[in-house]
Amino acid sequence: METPNNPAGMASLSFPKRIFFGLLRLFFKLLYHQLAWTYDGVAYIVSLGAWQKWVASIVPYLEGPKVLEIGFGPGHLQAALNQKEIFSFGVDESRQMAAIARQRLSKMGYPPNLVRGDAQLLPFADTCFNQVVTTFPAEFILNPSIFVEISRVLTDKGELIMLPLAWITGRSPLARLAAWVNRITDEAPKWDERFLEPLKSTGFELSWDILDFSTSKILLVRMRKSLLK
User: Fold this and answer.
1) Boundaries of every domain in the chain
2) Does the CA dihedral 217-70-201-207 come out positive or negative?
3) Least C-beta-crowded within 10 Å: which of 7, 48, 141, 160?
4) Interatomic CA distance for residues 79 and 32, integer angstroms
5) Beta-carbon neighbour count of residue 44 at 10 Å?
6) Which CATH class, in words, describes the domain spanning 10-227?
7) Cα 16 from chain centroid?
């Protein structure tokens, strides 16, 4: 889950909405840190059980042989990459998430190649990864310095793969409620290709697709380094 981000800016919102989004930001910060132990449960509820299926859907696009995950969270994608026998590393700034992910991987018998760090200053050598992946990142991903760092650690033909957005599309009353909650919290804004404009100025060759599921859909973005200057 990503931190809610109002594209028009907090200043353009009414006072009650600014209070609401301020509290929501605080909740998501706590959820990723002090309340990290509740993360999987909350993600399951707000996605109506589709959360891990969404994350798993990116695995076929990851061929490695070396993959870096930015924002590994509870470590589900790290586990899936290990099951696929792909050499992977993960970086995340949350101490609590690192502990949860490390415990999960160790119990499964996989090496926890996890590093606490800032995506704006990746602690890895140049051109050492074939792919970088991030699923439902917070708004930090729009910082131009992130793409400079990603470009630095990618090989010449490397690519960044992102899952930035998901939508509940089911028609049941519960699905409609979940879709409404995600929409008003800005977790799942109405799709507009203009959302991709900040990514088009990064120098990467960009392509995107909508992946459909029975009661939901997600946005898949692929960014190749080949055109980066």
Assistant:
1) 10-227
2) negative
3) 7
4) 19
5) 13
6) alpha beta
7) 28
> What's the DSSP call for residue 190?
P
- With contact defined as beta carbons under 8 Å apart, do 115 and 123 qualify? yes
| DSSP string computed for 12-25 | GS-HHHHHHHHHHH
The strands making up 129-135's β-sheet, listed across from edge to edge, are: 114-116, 87-92, 66-70, 129-135, 154-168, 216-224, 205-212
Please name which of 21, 27, 23, 25 lies closest in space to residue 3, comparing C-alpha atoms.
Answer: 25
112 phi/psi in degrees, rounded to 5: -80, 85
What DSSP letter does each residue of 110-155 carry, written as one string? ----EEE--GGG-SS-TT-EEEEEEES--GGGG-HHHHHHHHHHEE
User: pLDDT tens digits, residue range 97-143?
Assistant: 999 999 999 999 999 999 999 889 999 999 999 999 999 887 777 78
Cβ distance 104 to 75 under 8 Å?
yes
CB 53 within 8 A of CB 26: no
Structure tokens at 165: 């957005």
Q: What is the pLDDT of residues 7-24, one digit of tens each?
A: 444 445 565 656 655 666
- The predicted model scores a pTM of 0.84
Q: Is the dihedral of CA 20, 52, 223, 120 positive or negative?
A: positive
- The C-alpha atoms of residue 131 and residue 139 are separated, in whole angstroms, by 21
Q: Which helix (H) or strand (E) holds 221?
A: strand 216-224
